[in-house]
Amino acid sequence: MFTVEAVIDEKGNVKILQPMPLQGQGTRRALVVILDEPALPIAETALLSEAALAEDWLRPEEEEAWSYLKRATS
Questions:
Q1: β 14-16/6-8 pair status
Q2: 3-state SS class at 73
Q3: Distance CA 19, CA 5 (A)
Q4: Distance between CA atoms of 10 and 53, rounded to whole angstroms?
Q5: Residues 38, 8: Cα–Cα separation, whole Å
Q6: In whole angstroms, what is the distance from residue 30 CA to residue 8 CA?
Q7: Which of 56, 66, 44, 71 is nearest to 19 (CA)?
Q8: What distance in Å separates the CA atoms of residue 22 and residue 44, rounded to the nearest whole number?
Q9: What is the average pLDDT across 5-20?
Q10: Rounded to an integer, what distance in angstroms lies between the CA atom of residue 56 and that of residue 62?
Q11: Who wins on pLDDT, 74 or 51?
Q12: How far is CA 41 from CA 7, 46, 48, 58, in A?
């Protein structure tokens, strides 16, 4: 059992804001807790996730994969 962040739109559609690493196949049960606060704007959510994403972005293999962009802007 784990917790993930999601937003609910005006029509009641739930959108999970991160990938769901589920083991095996089949459906899963979930509990939805409605918080009495507005959802964060997408830009703010991106800023808050930057530290976690940086772990992947700053790997040597990522630097190598995107190194051609550095050459193009020089």
A1: antiparallel
A2: helix
A3: 10
A4: 29
A5: 10
A6: 14
A7: 56
A8: 26
A9: 86
A10: 7
A11: 51
A12: 10, 9, 11, 25
- Comparing CA positions, the residue from 25, 43, 32 lying closest to residue 8 is 32
Over range 9-31, report the average pLDDT: 84
- pLDDT range class, residue 59, cuts 50, 70, 90: confident
| Tokens coding 26 | 């089949």
DSSP state letter for 7: E
In this predicted structure, what is the pLDDT of residue 26?
A: 80
Cβ–Cβ < 8 Å for 19, 4: no
Domain ranges across the chain: 6-73
> Do the Cβ atoms of 46 and 52 come closer than 8 Å?
no
Q: Tokens 């704007």, residue?
A: 41
